[in-house]
Structure formats: C-alpha cells, structure tokens
Amino acid sequence: MDDNAAREDACREYQSSLEDLTFNSKPHINMLTILAEENLNFAKDIVAIIEAQILKAPATEKLPVLYLVDSIVKNVGGEYLEVFAKNLISSFICVFEKVDENTRKSLFKLRSTWDDVFPLKKLYALDVRVNSLDPAWPIKPLPPTVNASIHVNPKAKPEEWVPPPAPPPQPVPAMSQSSLTQEQLIRQQLLAKQKQLLELQQKKIELELEQTKAQLAGGFVLPTSTNAPAATSVAPKPINQTAPMVRPWIPPSQTQTDPKPSTRDPRLNRAGPPAPSQPKEQPAVKKDTPPTTGSPALTPEKRLPEKPTRPDKARTPRKEVSEDKPKSKSPSPLAKSVQSKNKPVESEVHKSVDGTKKDPRLRKRTQEKSSETKDDEMKEKKRCSEKKEREEVARGPEPQRFSKGNLVNGSVTKHDREDSEKAEFKTGGNARTHARKRTRSRSLSPSPSHKPFKPRRVRTDEPQHPKSGRDDRLPPKKNQSESRRSKRPGEDRHSESRDSHSPRSHDGGGKDTKEASHRWRSGWEENKHPKQSEDTHMKPGPQRHKPYGTPTRPTTPRTPKHRLSVDANLQIPEVLNSASKKDLLRRASKRVESGEISQEDFLNMAHQIKHFFQYQEEKQQQRSESWDDSDFPTKKQLLKTQVTHRVREWNSPLTERQRYDEREEQKSGYDAPRRYAPHLDSRHPDPRRPEGPPPSSTVVHRNCPSPVGLDAPAPRFERERLSPLQQRDAAEMSPVPRFESPNSEHSDDGPLNLDVAPPHPQPPPPPKSILKAPARGGPLSSVRQLSDSPGHTPPHDGGHPPSHYDGPGHIGPSRPHPPGWYDESPRFEGPHHQGPGRFDGGGPPHHNIPERFDGLGQCDSPHMSHGPIRGGDGMGRFEGHPQGPGRFVGPISQQPTGRFVGQGPGPGHFEGPVQCFDPPRHFDNMGPGSGPIGFQQQRPMCFVGPPNQMAPIRFEGLGHFEGPGQQGPRYDIPSVPHQGGPPRFEGQQGPPRLAPQHNLQPPIRQMGPMAFPAQPNLQLPPNFNMQPAPQFSQQAPAPFYNPAAPAVGMQQPVMGNMNQTVLPQNPVPFRPQTPQAPAENHFGQVDVNDLLSKLILTGIIKPVQPDAAPNTATPVVEEEEEEQEEVEEEDDIPDLTSFSLDDMKQRYESMVTKLYSGNQCCLCSMRFTAAQTDMYADHLDWHFRQNHAGKVASKKVTHRRWYYGLTDWIEFEEIADLEERAKSQFFEKENEEEVQKNQAAAKEKEFQSVKATKDQVRESCEICQEAFEPYWVEEEEDWFLKNAIRVDDKVRHDYTTSSYLDVTPSPHKVLTDHPLSAFIKTEEEDKKEENSCSMAAAPDKQEEQSEAGELLEVKKEEEQEVVTDTVQSEEDKV
Amino acid sequence: MATEGVEKLSEDAPAAGKVSTRFDLEKETELRFEVEAGEAAEQVEMELLTGMAEVFGSELNRNKKYTFGPGSKIAVFTWQGCSVNLYGKPEVAYVSKDTPMLLYLNTHAALEQMRKQAERDNERGPRVMVVGPTDVGKSTVCRLLLSYAVRVGRRPTLVELDVGQSGVSVPGTVSALCIERPADVEEGFSVQAPLVYHFGSTTPGTNIKLYNKLTSCLAEVFSQRCEVNRKASVGGCIINTCGWVKGSGYQALVHCASAFQVDVVLVLDHERLYNELKRDLPHFVRVVLLPKSGGVVERSKECRREARDEKIREYFYGFRGLSFYPFSFEVRFSEVRIYKIGAPSIPDSCLPLGMSQDDTQLKLVPVTPGRDLTYHVLSVSSAEDGDEGARKGIVESPVCGFIVVTFVDTQAQVMKVLSPAPRPLPRHTLLIMDIRFMDMK
Predict the structure, then answer these.
(1) What's a Gene Ontology MF term here (chain B) (predicted)?
(2) The pTM is what?
C-alpha cells in the first residue's frame, strides 16, 4: 500500500506541478522532468497524468506539456519512452488539431527531433495521422537520422534543424531552453505584431487580388485547345526558366559553365531542330534512345549542333518573329505531337521527338490520347522493372488523366490535335518561348532592347555573357549528359515509357530554356507574370510591360493570346479552361476560408491568375500571331534539341550526373545551383514517371539537356530567388528574412523535395524509406556537397544512375548530389506538401521552419516553376500533363523540369537532374502516374496552398506576415516567373481551353493575378522582378548568383534541417497529394508552367487537386465534372429572368458564393472583392470618419441634418461624398449672409478674443471688472472671451472695440449696452455656431435668446452683477 | 421547427445574468427569435460563433455581438450552416428549416442577371415593385434584395411608398434612398441621404391623389438620377408598397407600376393580387408570386403605432435614441407658413363650379397656427420661400426634414418646436401631418 500511497503522493504532486505548466517555461519543464525522473517507478502514472493534462489543457497550454513530454523522453527516457510512445500519436494529434499554425510549426520542429527518440514506425504513423489532418505535414518515410539531440528542448533542436533558414522559427527553438523561452516570447510578440501588420497588408493585397479576380472573372473564359498548346507551352517554359537559371549559375563558375554552355548549346541545338523534320527525327531518336540508350546519344549530338543555332534563332526570333515562329513551330508541335502519339502507341522515335520538344505536353498528350495503350505498354515495361508497382499507381492516374485530357481537349485524338495543333503549338510554343525568353531577358535585363533571345540574355545580365558562353558549353554537357542519360534512361525508358515522357517534357523544357529563352519567355509570359512582363518587354513590349507594370493586376486580355499560343503545348488548359478565373478565385477563397490556403497564397494565386489572364489576353491579341510563329519554331528547335539531350541524358544518366557534378563543381561556389540541379534531377524523374516509359527516356534526356541548358538559367533563378530571399532576409525582419531565405531555399528545396517526394509516392513504402535515407543522407551530403559539392555529386551521380534508376539508385543519386539539393528538395517537398499543414500546425520554431518551408514551397512552386524551376517546371509540368496521362506527367514533369532547369545550369545540377531522373524512373517503376501525380499534387498543394497558406497562416503572426510579405514578393517574383510560365502555358493551352472550356481561363487568370498581386503587394516584388527577370534573362545571373550563393548557403542549412523533416513528411504528403498532383498536372497542362503550378498550389491547388484526384481515380469524368463545376460556378445559374419557379427553387451555389466572397470588413461585415480594393479603402476611410465622428460626438453635438435637396440627391453618388458636402447647396446659399457675418465676426474675434481657461470663463475684465462674455468657437473647439484682450497675462476688455470706445465704461452703461450687444452677438454666434453648438450651451443660449430677450437681458445683468460682485469680493479678499 | 443543436450554456453567459443559448444551424435554415416588447424588456444579444450567416441579407460578423431591442423580430439565416449564440431571454426562439430564402435569393439572382444584361446593353436595370398585403414581409424582402444587390456591388435604390411604415424616414412620407451598403444588422439601412416627400398620413387612402402624385414625382426624380448616375440606373430600384391592395390601393399599385415602368412585380403571398396584376400590367412586366416567410409576424395596430412612434423618435434622437441630440427652439408664427395638403373632402355639390374633387386633394390649405398644432409633425418643405406663386411647387418638393410642435404660445405668437438641427429652419414652408408625436421618452 505504501506504493500506492507513494504513488498517489507522487501523482498528486506531479499533477499540481504540471498544472502550473501553462506556458513554455524551461525551468518548469526541467523541474517536471526531474520530478518525472525521480518518479520513474510511477512512469505510467506520470505519463497518464501528463497525457491527461495534454487532453484537458487549453489549446495554448498544450504545447508546453508536449515539450515536457519531449524533455522527459529525451532526458529520462527508459520506461517513459515506451509509455509515452503508446499514446504519443493520440496526444500529438490532440495537440496538433487544437493549436494554431505557429504552434503547429513548433510541433513540427518538435516532431522532427524525435527521429532518434521514438520508433520510426511510430513516427511514421504519427506523420500519417498528422498529415491526414494537415496535408502539408510531411511524412518521413524513413526517420532520417536526425541530429535531434535527445536533450531537452525541442526548440533547441528545431533550431538546429532550421537555424539557417528559419530565423523566425528559431525563436521557439531557442538555443538554450531558458534563453529559448525568453527569446520565444519576444519573438512571438514580434511575430504577433508582424502578423498584424501582415494581416493588414494582406487585406490590402487581398482586396487588390479580389479586384483582379473580379476583373479576371469578368474576363475571359479560356478556350480549350489546351492539350497541344499546353504541351508546347510547357516545354518552352521549362526551357526558358531553366535556361535563365543555368546562365546565372554559369557566370559564377565559368570553367564549369563551359561544359554547361555546351549543354545549353545542345538545348539550343534542340531548339535548332525545331525545324520540323529535325525535331521529329530527333524526338524519335530520343524516344528510341530512352528505351535504347544508343539512339538518344545520337539524337543529342544532332540536337547539340542544332541547338546552338536554334537558340540564336530563338533569341532572334523573339526579336524577329518570323524566325522564331518557324523554329518553334516545327520542333515543338511536331515533337509534342509525335512524342505524345508515338510514345503511347509505338514510335519511340515519336516519343523521343515529342518528348524532346515539348516533352511534357506532348508526352502527356500522347499519353492521354493514344496514351492509354502507350501507357499500358509503358506500364508494362515499368511493371516488369521494379518500378512496376509505382507505374501501376501512376498509370491508374495517368489513364484517367489521359481520358480527362482527351475529354477536355475534345474528342479529337491527341494525334489529330497535335497535328492540327502542332502548327499552332509550334507557333504558340515559339511565341511562348519567345515570350519566356523575353520575359526572362527582360527580367534579367532591365533594358528590353536586350531582349533578342541570345543577345538579350547575354546583354541583360552580366552573367548573361558568361551564361551565353555557358549555354554553349552547357549544351555539350547536356549532350554528354544526355548521352549518358540516354544510356541509363534507355533501360528506364524502355521500362518506363511514361517516365520517359515526363522527362522528355522536362528535357524539352530544359532545352527550351536554353534554346528558347523564347520558350521561357513565352512560358513566363503565359505562366508567370514576370516572364510575361519580360516577354512583353521583349516582343509585345506593351503587353509584357503591362504585366510588369501591373504585376498585381495583369491584364487578362493579354493572357488569352498567350494561352492560344500556349494552348498547343499545354494540357493544363483543360483544367484551366474548365475553371474560370472566377471559379478559381472562388475556390481559392473557399480554401482560404476553410483555412486550406493561406491568405497570402490566396493573394498570390489571385495575382497569378490575373497575370495569366492578362497574359493570355495579350498573347491572344498580340502574340498569338507573331509570337506563335516565332516562338513555335524556336520551341520546336528547342524541343528537338532538348529531346536529343534528353536522350543522351537518358542514355547516360551517370554522364549527366557527372556533368551536373562538374557543373556543380564549377558552380561549387554556388550551392544553390547544385541544389537546383538535384532538384531538377528529381523533377526530371518525376516527369519521366508521369509520362511513362517512352517519355522517361526522352524525358530524362530532355531533363538532362534542360538541366544543362537550364543549369545556367536554373542557377540564375535560384540565385535570384536566393538573392531575393537573402536580400529580404537582410532587409526584412529576422522572421521575414527567414521566410524569404526559406523561400529561396524552399525554391531550391522545392525541386529537391519534389524529387524526393516523387520517389516516395511512387514506391510509397520502399521509396520512402529509401528516400528518407537518401534525404537524410542528402542533407548531410548536401552540406558536404555544398563544400565539396562538385566532387561528391559526380561520384554519386555516377554510382547512382544505374541503380538509382530502378529504385534505390534514384535515392542514392539524389542523395549524393543533392545532399544539399536533396535536403532542399525534401524540404521543398515538405514545405510544399506538408508545408501548409506543418506550417499551420508547426510550433513557433517550427513555424519559422515551416514558414521557410512554405516559403520554399512557394518558392519552389514559384521559383521552381517560375524561376529555373518555373521554367522547367512549367515546361515540364505542362508537357508532362499534356503528354501523359499527361497530367500526371505534367505535374511531375513540371516540377522535375523546373528542377532540371535549375540543375541544368550548374554541372552539379546536372548530376542532380540525373539523380532526379533516377527518381523519376523510380516513380515510373513505382507508378509513373501516381508518383508524378503525388508530386505534382504535393507540390501544387504545398506551393499554392502551403506557400500562400503558410505565408498567411504563419504570417498571421507579425513576423509571419512580414515574412509572407517578403516571401510574397519573393514568391511573387518566383510566381512572376511562374506566372510567366503559366501564361505561356495558358497561351499554349489557351486555345484548347477556350475551345474546351471557358472555366480554364478563369483559373489561369487567377493564377496570373495571384502572382502579380503578390508581387505588387509585396515590397520585395521589385526585387523579385529584378532578380527573376535577370535570372530569366540571364542578365541578372551574376548578381543573383552572388546573392544566390549566400542564399544557397542559407538554404542549405535550412535545407538540411528541412530535409530531415521534409523527407519524412514528403512521403505522406505525396500520397495524399497525389490526387492533387493530377490536378496540378491538369493545370500544368493548361498553364503548363508556374502559373499552373501556382494556381494549383494556391487557389487552383484545391481545384486542381480535386481535378487531379478525379483524374487519377476517374480522370476524365472527374475533370469534366470539375470543369463543369467551375463553369457552373459562374454559369450555373440558368436564365432566371423568367422567374420560373422550377428554376427558382434550385440552389445555385455560385450566388451564395458570390455573396460570401471577398474580404469581409471587420466592422460592418461588408465584403469586398479583389476588384473592389479601392472601394474597400474608401469604405475603411468611411468607417474611420464614422468612428472619428463618434469620438467627436462627445465634444460636439451631433444631430440629424436636414435632408439634401433634390438636385443633391439626384447627383449624389457616395455617402461619403454626401457627408463631405454635408452643407448642401441651398444651405450654403442661405447661409451666405450668415457666413459673411460670421467671417466678419470671426475677424473681430480674432483680434478681440482671448481663449478662456477654465477659471477664466467667468472672469471679469481687470479694468472694468465687467464679466467677459464667453463664447464657443467651433474651429478652436474651445471657449473664448469676447472683446477680451490679454495684456501682461491679464485679461481685460479690448477698448479699441467700438462699444468700448464709444461708450463710457460706466457700469450702468455697460450693463445696459452690453447685454444688448451681447444678445446681438450671441445671435450671430448662434447662427455661426449652429452646427457646432454644444448641446448644453446651444439650447441654453437659444432658449434664452428666443424665449425672452428682455428676461434674458435681465438675467444676464443679474448674473454679471453677481459675478462681478463675487469677483470683487474675491479680489478684496486677496 | 428544428430545435436540434440547441443547448443551454449558462456558463457562457457573457453578460452577468444573461442566459446563453447556442443554436447550431444547418445550412439553409434560419433562427428566428423575437425580443419581448415593452419598456422593461431585456435586450437580446446575438453572436455568430462559427460559419456564416445573415440577417435579412446583411451578413454577420463572426464573434461580434448584435443587440436587438424590445420588439425586434429577427431571423438569422445561414446558407452554409453556422452556430449562433443568443444572450438573454428572447420571447421566442426557434430554428426553421422552411424558408423561402432560396426563392428570394434566386429572385436576386434573376435581378442580377437583368442588371448584367442592362450593363451590357447600356440599358436601365430592373425596377422591381414588391407588393402584397400587410404583414407578409414586403419590407424584409426589399431589404433582402437590396442588401444582396449591394453586396454584389450594385447601387440599387429603395423606393419607399409605404406611408404607414416607412423604412426610410418618418411615417407619412414617401421616399427614395440610395443603397450603398448592406443594411446594418441592427439599424437597417443608413438613411443619410434620402429623398423624402411629404404625404401627411399613414394611409394612402386619405389622399390617394396626392399619393399617386408623389409616386410620379419619385419616379420622375429617380429617372433623372438614373440619367445622371449610371450605376444607379443599372442598379435599378426596389419599390416597397403599402399593404393596401384593394380598390384604389390596387389602382395606386398599378399607377406606381406605370410611373416607374417596373420590370418586375413581386407579389408576396397574394394570389389574387398576383393574377390581377398579371392581367392589368403589360405583358412584358414579369409578375412573380412569391411565398411569404413563415417567420413573418402579424403586427397589431398598437404595434404599428409604436413602430411609427419609434421611427419618429429615431429621426430626432437617432437609433435607439443615442446618436442624435435634437434641438428645441421657438419659432414665431410670422416666420413660417403652415399648409395642409388637400382640402377636406366635401360633397361635390358643395364644390365651386368647375372644381373637381381631385383638385382639392392637391390643394394647399393654409393652416392657422393654434394650439391644435401641438404634437403634430410638420414637414419642412424644401420649396423656396416665396409668395403665393411659389406655392405650386410645394407639393412636389421634397422635404428638408421634420419638426414637432411641442408647445404653442398663441399669445406670444410663437411655437416651440423640436428640430433635428439647430435653428434656423432651412425653409419656412411647413406642411402639417396628421401624425402626432409626443416626445415622452
């Protein structure tokens, strides 16, 4: 019984102590930990008490208890560990579901420190559970070997994890527990304030967004010629994006750049292939190569030569539309169409061609159209290989997607469409590419004149020249890598046609990037606002400029054109088409409301959408013709070149990796690039996976090429991103900087994460473990790589490629290369996917990290897709989508492409890409469709939702807000690129969308607007624009690189931390997100690039996700449904004007939605949409006036005014105005005389009045002892003494006044005269003071005056006498 | 009568002693509650806890307490589902699933489509007349439609022709009000700038000629505004009418429809009226029969009188008598000219030759100030002060505001008036109403 008694005592004691743990107090936790250690015998009881405390504690006090658990587990361990583990999940979930985002961040950090504490199974189950609550929560497949020191503060650990990236989060993870608590408190306070500020900013932004949304909504419905355009657009976009990235990178490491340039050249060559015949052949070769390594190599060579020329052409085409057009047309359309068609069915060549050119889309298309068969084949191959499982999964979704895509696109077969669209696509693609290029160049180089593709790039940024050189160099590298890849991929490709497709798309993107700044530009324009802006600067100066000028409010009209051009390439258009801007906005708003998406994300989305729409419009109007023509040729060339590169890459993934490594080495200084490379790699794999076997080979090659080409661009992007982030970090608050840095990092990570994530999804269990392991290793390795990156990466690449391809190998490669990258990538994934959830759930420290993640995630989506990633992603994704099950491929491909692009620039990146390729392959094996989908979904989710959401949520805290704001800008920048990408996609997809569904357009618009708004809103935007642009254009590269390098460093650490966390998260997110991925793919198809991804991620994400999910499950049907729903949202209301009861009895959700959309005024519940920002501002002003009036009311008498006159009423518009002119005309007229009198009187007062003090009110003249007459002066809001003058601090009557001059100051006279004059004066005053009289005073006076003048006088006299008497008596006394 | 989800949470009582009742509403249901009328009645506070809800078309802010005074009859409707807390003891509170809100919303949707059409075609927006007998929720439907319209960015105009229960100004007037923001949940529409015409009685029947005349005036002015203001034109107008739907009341409705050239007539819960209007109005006028809400409460004469009193009080003292401070001052008889519109009806046989009854209804009859003026509400006409010649425009001139005679001193030839604004009076032409107001509070 003693035991029982002791137990009871111990429990009671512990219970009481525990109840005091209401805040995060390190001492207290330590005490409780010691107490728990002392009562180790009663561990179960103690644990029960603690768990009960967790259950019953208020939400705000749960975290400290959880920290206690953490402390006990880590410091005491033993039995506690086991006991706590039993209910760990339920306890954790209990806390997680009740707490806010900041706390969730902390939770995330906390959980990230448990890898060494709790069984991995447990943690995995925990991740899964949490992920079910918050999709953003990353699931660690394999518990990464976390540094997580067992000791004490989770916070401290989080810091370790997050330290570099997440300054804001750090607060929680204070270095020492004690310090942590204080720091946390302070930081939390700061965060809270920052959140408030951010909230306010967000509201403004939201308003703007809403406005833009409204505009967009009002705007077009994108036609659906999505598939072909999407594909083309996608490819170009990635290329463009990647190219810029690469260039920036290249400049830093010229030596390495040389190879890179060669790679770039390959891309260019690829672009060169754009010549119709070449592109096709090349693609075919590539396709062949994927399965058969030999062929790819050949193709690459061809492509290489072509590419150099092509890039020039492409560049020139931008300037010279005609050239570009032919190039782009021939390559992109053909390639795409061919690829798509051939891939699924038979012709590997076609596949290769398609994949190479506009791989993603084409592949997707092909997959979608003829894809099923192809897919099946691919699947079969994959199945044969280890990847079979994955493939199956992927296939499931892919077929659906295909069907959806088919449906969306129309009944027309992909081939037909492709054929018909090819020309369009080509043109569109070219235009897109041009646009992208232009955008990039523009962005990079402030001067539009530089815009000429090559010249522009070079000119734009100092780095450009090096870049150009690098590009040239890169192409060779790419070729090599391609050859290597092709060899490697060959197997994979054969096994995984889908993968190859995706890779092709990616590759195409990469090629596009190099070859076609055009494509990039186009992609930018279409997808990303920045791109668009760049594009506009370059070609359609006005259009592009417009986006730039009004990043927040891109002109919707522009977008349509882009879309048209893009349509051919983009599959996304379908989704986009299906979803109108309004729909997208609505969805986004809903999500925001539901908390799925953060406000920031939402805003970003809106901006992007706006931009998209604008771009589309612009494209449609201006570009459609010229752009399309020019761009298409370039794109085609690019595609071809890309395809070849891809093939090569596939053949020799190792070589590619080596190249990457080399590049990385060259870039070694730039960790970011390296990271990008890995990311790219991962992305590449993704695309491959989605696309399937045929694409895989091609894709890989493409990816590789793209990476190569992209490497330069990608690095730039990364750098840019990084730089922005860094800049922001420096400039902004620590939280913000962190956010920014995270973003930059995220962007880098994003790709990596994506890469990692994809593998996980495909081979969920095994991959996860593998991935985790790699990821974990990755971070570490990444760090190493950062320092040694070149060396490390190459070996890894070499070793990994083969093995990796099939499965583990992927992870391995990715790990080695990316270490940094991987870390980043995992993080990205984490952020992307889990990011939102984590962010939300994460604790403060976690928050920082999460924020970073979000940022990263966002960045990734934006950066990746928009920036290097963007370019690549956009291309890749779009391509992937179009081609395959397209959507699946698309998403994956997009991301991969982005990554590839990023990687492409740096040698190291190539390695990364190689690795990435491997992952993709894995994905393919696992299940191309699922893998890609998962990635895409996750990415979109993470990107769109998480970034935005994250930002908003996290930002809610002051720090967060700032962070978001900063991020936002950063994001915006990224987004801008993305937007440009999306626009491109849109452009490509645009036509399809328009044709298929109007809804799609709205989404696009939203995307565009979102991105733009974000930029505008964010202060950073300018920076972003500058940076992104430069990056894109390559001009910025050098500067960016420098920034990027630091940023990279920052990111790397973060990445490392992130990776650990992210990796675990990734697996889960991927799975959940997988459905989303399809959606993303769809979007990607439509928008192809970043815009789509962003849209998907943010506003679109949800819509996309649903779409994706439907696609995967029942691709076609779901998509259609979604589209329909989207349509319905805007058009679901039949013509009710007949007031038929049958119709009237139906609930039309859109009506309700419309009533409840927009930001709600917190004071009056009125809602204001984005289009009503100004109104909202006015409205708030009105509230302010009202409140002010209310305050003033205490001083003044308020009364109802006389009604306004007839004319006033007829003319009046706003109440505010009315209030302003409260004095209506007739009043003024009537009062004219009075006014004059008042003025005259006022003059007298000015000279004769003295401000009365409290005791002076009844003061009498010092000379005559006569009381002063006090009166109220409205303007002064104080009492004055009439006819008084202050002399030597003494008040006396002003005897200069007539009454005193003329009248002798005899008391009698004074009494007689004064009352009269006073009365007169008072009457005047009354008139004057009508409006201002105080309640008490006015009535009194009035009554006195009006009721009985004589009596009044008498009274006054009496009063005066009394007063004087009293005064005199007082004086006497004195 | 779904009462599920209702649970007493006395512990949550925000204010001391107030009982908190939580209602969880499913989507498309509404919580109806009435606050006990009477001086001593306790106010009821309502708070939206979760979800989104609206009160007569005005969305609620979450976690904001809305206070409803005695006699309030409130319906909290939710399209998405919500939970609401009531603090205090409402006379009755229940959740209803059966509401015509969907029809009302779709009516708004249809009107919105017409507005869009008008926007496209550069035409005028829909002009809607809401008709029906008393106590069918006409005013509520108007408020709903107006709030919905303004919530989607329109600028509709409320034309208040219900002289008995004006929602805009004091009773005995017809008015038009530009709606720029949704009605305040507690206070209703902001009445900063209405256009008000003096009618003088609480029922159109006392001077149907004047009523129709004023209707035409309003229509004319509104048309002018539509010409000037495009948004107002597109926004159209919602016309609230009297509950008098028979005889000359019906004729007045038809006249109103023609004067405003209404496009849509919403008939609430009156099939006969619906069919009559459908028969008598041009074919292009869409006459729609809508059900009334089950939540509509029949108001007694006493209730109506109190509502009128409250409306006048609100004019002088502001909402709940808190926001405005009226002025009281004396006006000399010589300063003002007081008229009554419409001569007492006399047998035709007694009319001067050549005069018809109609003429007398619009005639300005000078009123000699006397003690019987006490407590009467006087409208201050915006007609320019002038000689007899200026009289003609007086009837058709809007009013600047209202004063109440609180005391008449026939010896001093002055009367003490309660005025919303300090002296002097903006105009000196006063129109006497039948309505009296005793400032008892």
Answers:
(1) ATP-dependent polyribonucleotide 5'-hydroxyl-kinase activity
(2) 0.41
Residue B155 DSSP one-character state? -
Between B173 and A1221, the more confident residue is: B173
Shortest Cα distance, chain B CAs vs residue A1213, angstroms: 7
Residue A1069 CB partners (closer than 8 Å, separation 6+): A131, A135, A136, A137, A138, A139, A757, A829, A830, A832, A833, A834, A837, A938, A941, A942
d(CA B157, CA A1179): 19
Residue A999 structure tokens: 């809804």
State the nearest Cα–Cα gap between A1131 and chain B, in angstroms: 11
Of B288, B398, B426, the CB nearest to A1230: B426
> What is residue A918's predicted lDDT score, i.e. its pLDDT?
35
- Asked if the C-beta of A1373 comes within 8 angstroms of chain B's C-beta atoms, the answer is no
DSSP one-letter code for A462? T
**Phi, psi dihedrals of residue B50, rounded to the nearest 5°:** -140, 165
Tokens of B85: 């807390």
Q: How many CB atoms lie within 10 A of CB A304?
A: 35
Strands (DSSP E) contained in B154-311 are 157-160, 173-178, 194-198, 237-240, 264-268, 286-290
Nearest to A353, CA basis, from A782, A775, A878, A879: A879
In whole angstroms, give the CA distance from residue A1145 to residue A1133.
12
Q: How far is B230 from chain A (nearest CA, A)?
A: 10
Give the highest mean pLDDT range of A641-645, A1370-1374, B205-209, B236-240: B236-240
Residue A1184 contacts B, CB cutoff 8 Å? no
The residue in chain A having the minimum alpha-carbon distance to the alpha carbon of residue B99 is A1145
Say whether pLDDT at B334 is over 80. yes
Peptide bond into A862 cis (omega under 30): no
Q: What is the DSSP string of A706-763?
A: HHHHHHBHHHHHHHHHHHHHHHHHHHS-SHHHHHHHHHHHHHHHHHHHHHHTTTTTSS
Asked if CATH classification 2.60.120.1030 holds for the domain at B20-96, the reply, yes or no, is yes
- A·B CB contacts under 8 A: 195
A170 — pLDDT class (breaks 50, 70, 90): very low
Whether domain B326-346+357-436 has CATH 2.40.30.330:
yes
Helices (H) and strands (E) in chain A, counts: 70, 8
Q: Which of A12-16, A1002-1006, A1241-1245, B97-101 has the lowest mean pLDDT?
A: A1002-1006
H helix intervals, A445-580: 453-460, 464-495, 497-515, 517-526, 529-538, 541-549, 558-567, 573-578
Distances, alpha carbon A1073 to alpha carbons A134, A138, A402, B79, in Å: 11, 11, 19, 30
Compute the distance between CA of residue B56 and CA of residue B42 in angstroms, rounded to an integer.
Answer: 22
Chain B residue whose CA is closest to A1190: B323
CATH superfamily of B100-290: P-loop containing nucleotide triphosphate hydrolases (3.40.50.300)
At residue A102, the 3 state secondary structure works out as: helix
Using the CB atoms, write b or e for A879-909: b if 16+ within 10 Å.
Answer: bbbbbbbbbbbbbbbbbbbbbbbbbbbbbbb
Strand order, beta sheet including B327-332: B327-332, B414-419, B399-409, B376-381, B429-436, B337-341, B364-366
Contacts of A1343 in chain B (CB under 8 A): 328-330
- Domain ranges for chain B, please list them: 20-96, 100-290, 326-346+357-436
Is the ipTM here above 0.90? no
**Which has the higher per-residue pLDDT, A104 or B201?**
B201
Sort A1096 into a burial class: Cβ within 10 Å, 0-12 / 13-18 / 19+.
Answer: buried
Q: Who has greater pLDDT, A45 or A757?
A: A45
State the number of CA atoms in the 13 A half-sphere of A880 facing the CB.
67
Contact B171, B436 (CB under 8 A): no
Q: Are A927 and A395 in contact (CB under 8 A)?
A: yes
